[in-house]
Design brief:
CATH topology of the domain at 8-111: Phenylalanyl-tRNA Synthetase, Chain B, domain 1
CATH class of the domain at 8-111: Alpha Beta
Number of helices: 4
Largest sheet: 3 strands, antiparallel
Structural class: alpha+beta
Radius of gyration: 25 Å
Strand order of the largest sheet: 1-3-2
Distance between the termini: 91 Å
CATH superfamily of the domain at 8-111: Signal recognition particle, SRP19-like subunit
CATH architecture of the domain at 8-111: 2-Layer Sandwich
Shape: elongated
Helix content: 25-40%
Length: 149
């Protein structure tokens, strides 16, 4: 474990997990939380807020969740102060969480709209109709009767 550095703060993806309770380690409200957060998506969310000085530590588990190797993200306090205008960890977590949640909900809406619209005009492979093969094991097949003369 690295020693304590007062110039940096650490963020864990579990802080933003909507499936965890506050007791289990979620630090933001349900409105600012996201489903299935990862270290890479946390870094992208921090970058979208405007933070540039960060360091990723992958394959490290949070002390409260030792079985999950979720990783952590180190952020510079000077960078927080200069870009976001905040110096506290809680304010940074709330800002990143709300931005991340809006990005995820916008992406979900776009996917639903694309699914509703259907395949594009020139996409023959997506437009082709494929016959479904029905399972033959459960149904009884009738034999053809031969005509007797």
């Amino acid at each position: 474990m690295s020693e304590h550095n007062p110039d940096r703060i650490v963020l864990w993806p579990g802080y933003f997990n909507s499936k965890l309770s506050r007791k289990q380690g979620r630090r933001v409200s349900k409105d600012s939380s996201v489903a299935n957060p990862t270290l890479d998506t946390l870094a992208l969310a921090a970058r979208s807020v405007g933070l540039s000085k960060m360091k990723r530590d992958a394959e490290i588990s949070h002390p409260k969740r030792p079985s999950l190797k979720e990783g952590r993200l180190w952020l510079s306090k000077k960078d927080l102060q200069s870009t976001l205008g905040v110096s506290s960890k809680e304010a940074a977590i709330k800002t990143i969480g709300s931005k991340w949640n809006t990005q995820q909900s916008d992406l979900k809406e776009k996917e639903e709209a694309a699914k509703k619209a259907g395949p594009k005009t020139g996409d023959r492979q997506a437009r082709s109709q494929r016959k479904q093969i029905k399972s033959r094991g459960g149904s009884k097949r009738q034999k053809k009767q031969k005509w007797k003369l």
